[in-house]
Description:
Blueprint: E1 16-18, H1 36-46, E2 48-52, H2 54-62, E3 67-72, E4 90-92, H3 95-102, E5 111-115, H4 122-128, E6 131-135, H5 141-153, E7 158-161, H6 171-176, E8 186-188, H7 198-201, E9 205-209, E10 216-217, H8 218-226, E11 235-239, H9 248-252, E12 256-259, H10 271-282
Parallel strand pairs: 1-4, 3-4, 6-7, 6-11, 7-8, 9-11, 9-12, 10-12
Antiparallel strand pairs: 2-5, 3-5
Helix pairs in contact: 5-10
Amino acid sequence: MPADLPRDPDGAVDRTIAIDDAADPRVDDFVALTDVALRRRREPADGLFIAEGERVIVRALRAGYRPRSVLVAPARLAAVPAGLPADVPIYVAGADVLAAITGFEVHRGALASMCRRPPRTAADLLATARRILICEDIVSHTNLGAIFRSAAGLGMDAVLLSPRCADPLYRRSVRVSMGEVFAVPYARLDPWPAALDDLPAAGFTVLALTPAADADDLASFAARVDAGAGPPARVALLLGTEGPGLSAAAQSAAGARVRIPMAHGVDSLNVAATAAIACYLLGRR
């Protein structure tokens, strides 16, 4: 972030800075946003993430994330949130320069580079949470963002991620979640799957979601919980990767296996849809 921003003739800080060259180092935070491999390496290493669109930027600010800079087209200056700190530069670039910087046509108003926070630990979250989602190797940023949105809206206290899961603060995850990744605390669970043993030790009943026909009906299980006839109040739901589902090692760490019964020969739902149903049935409302 620049130490000194330009001032207008009256001495007031002018935060809008014109960018005419895509190679300008001042907008380096926003370079090649469509290069997933590059951004996955760079963003955590540099301690930043990208918030896209006014609503998501506002959510990030309200959650206490500190902005580094904003990039916007001249016609979309109104999309820059009014609550942006006074020392944060607003870089303004035409459509062609924006596309050259980011790698795509920017349609959602402003982009903001935000500072990451120090990562939470699984132990911190297990100490206070009562409803947890645990994701094994979910690599789709879209699915992960949708899972966080369901977790936030349907009463889950935290999300734990295996080491190979996608980054919740990657731009697409943040956008799909509509900024709800900021509302649900999360941590990496490592080593995997050995660290799953920490859940029963912390008083959690671990449920493995599987389409297997011999698994318990999730709705029936949830009804027993609501009636006070089920397991202890602390519940963790295990969700498997897209396609293969939960690994055998992860399933073996669960205290019970549960399923969502299917009709018309459908074997299972998308993992994000599964998470939404499970959160509705077992989340704290």
